[in-house]
C-alpha cells in the first residue's frame, strides 16, 4: 500500500511484450511535492513505465498506487494527472487554443480563461490563429505542456518535455516546473541526458534495460 508521502509507488512491476521483458520488477517511490527525473535512452522502459502509471498499460506483475489509489483495482486511471507521453497529437487544422478547448471540453473542469493562462505560461499566444499543423517542434512541445498543466493536476508526467526547445525555451519550462513544485505538485520527467535534469530535479533515477535505479 502507498504511504502518505508517496505520490506514486510501484511494487515489483514487470511488463513484457511477447518475449521482451521491458520492465523488470521495479519497486520505487516518487514522493509528493518533488520533481523526479528519470534518465535513460530510447527503449530503456521509461515510456512504458509512464503508461503503466497512467493506467494505459496493465503490468503483467506487481502493483502501482497513484495518490493512494491502486491502478486497475481502486481506479482505472489516476484522477488528477496531466501528461505528455510520446509525441503530443493535435488536430493540424485547428489553432492551439482550439485544440486545447476541445480537450478541455471532455471533462469540463476548466473554461477559456484557464486555457489561455496555461498557453501564456508556456510562451504561446492564445489568440493566435496559426494552425497547430504549422507549429514548429518547439511550439508543439509548448502546446503539449500547456495541455498537461491546464487543468491544474496534482501530478505531472512529462516524457521528454524539452524536445525541440532552445535554451531560452528550456529555461522558461524549468521556471514553470519550479513554480509548480513550490505549489506542492509532483512532477515526473523523463529525459535522455539534459543539463536541466541535473539542477531541476530533487531526485534522479536511471532506467536501463527495464530496471530503475536511483542515483541522486
Could you walk me through the main structural features you see in this protein, from its secondary elements to its overall organization?
This protein is α/β, with parallel strands linked by helices and 216 residues long. 30% of the residues lie in helices and 29% in strands. The chain has helices at residues 46-53, 96-107, 112-121, 137-149, 167-182, 195-200, and strands spanning 6-17, 20-31, 35-39, 61-66, 69-70, 81-84, 155-159, 186-191, 203-208, 211-214. The strands form two sheets. A six-stranded mixed beta sheet has the order 6-7-8-3-9-10. It has a four-stranded antiparallel beta sheet with strand order 2-1-4-5, with helices on one face. A hairpin with a 2-residue loop joins strand 1 (6-17) and strand 2. The model has no long low-confidence stretch (mean pLDDT 93).
What key phrases describe this protein's structure?
10 strands, globular, 216 residues
Distance between the termini: 24 Å
SSE topology string: EEEHEEEHHHEHEHEE
What Rg do the Cα atoms give?
17 Å
The residue ranges in which pLDDT falls below 50 over 5 or more consecutive positions are: none
Which structural category fits the helices and strands? alpha/beta
- Number of helices, where a helix is a run of at least 4 consecutive DSSP H or I residues: 6
What does the largest sheet look like?
6 strands, mixed
How many runs of DSSP E, i.e. beta strands? Answer: 10
User: Order of strands in the sheet with the most strands?
Assistant: 6-7-8-3-9-10
Report the β-strand fraction as a percent range: 25-35%
Helix content: 25-40%
Amino acid at each position: 500500500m502507498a504511504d502518505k508521502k508517496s505520490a506514486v509507488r510501484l511494487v515489483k512491476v514487470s511488463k513484457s511484450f511477447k518475449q521482451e521483458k521491458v520492465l523488470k520488477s521495479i519497486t520505487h517511490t516518487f514522493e509528493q511535492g518533488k520533481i523526479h527525473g528519470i534518465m535513460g535512452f530510447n527503449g530503456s522502459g521509461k515510456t512504458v513505465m509512464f503508461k503503466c502509471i497512467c493506467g494505459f498499460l496493465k503490468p503483467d506483475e506487481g502493483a502501482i498506487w497513484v495518490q493512494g489509489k491502486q491502478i486497475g483495482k481502486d481506479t482505472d486511471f489516476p484522477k488528477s494527472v496531466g501528461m505528455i507521453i510520446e509525441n503530443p497529437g493535435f488536430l493540424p487544422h485547428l489553432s492551439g487554443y482550439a485544440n486545447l478547448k476541445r480537450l478541455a471540453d471532455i471533462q469540463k473542469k476548466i473554461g477559456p480563461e484557464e486555457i489561455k493562462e496555461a498557453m501564456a505560461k508556456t510562451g504561446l499566444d492564445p489568440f493566435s490563429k496559426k494552425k497547430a499543423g504549422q507549429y514548429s517542434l518547439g511550439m508543439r512541445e509548448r502546446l503539449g505542456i500547456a495541455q498537461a498543466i491546464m487543468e491544474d493536476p496534482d501530478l505531472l508526467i512529462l516524457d521528454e518535455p524539452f524536445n525541440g526547445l532552445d535554451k531560452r525555451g528550456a529555461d522558461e519550462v524549468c521556471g514553470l516546473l519550479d513554480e509548480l513544485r513550490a505549489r506542492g505538485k509532483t512532477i515526473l520527467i523523463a529525459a535522455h541526458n539534459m543539463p536541466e535534469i541535473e539542477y531541476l530535479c530533487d531526485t534522479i533515477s536511471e532506467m536501463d534495460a527495464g530496471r530503475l535505479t536511483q542515483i541522486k
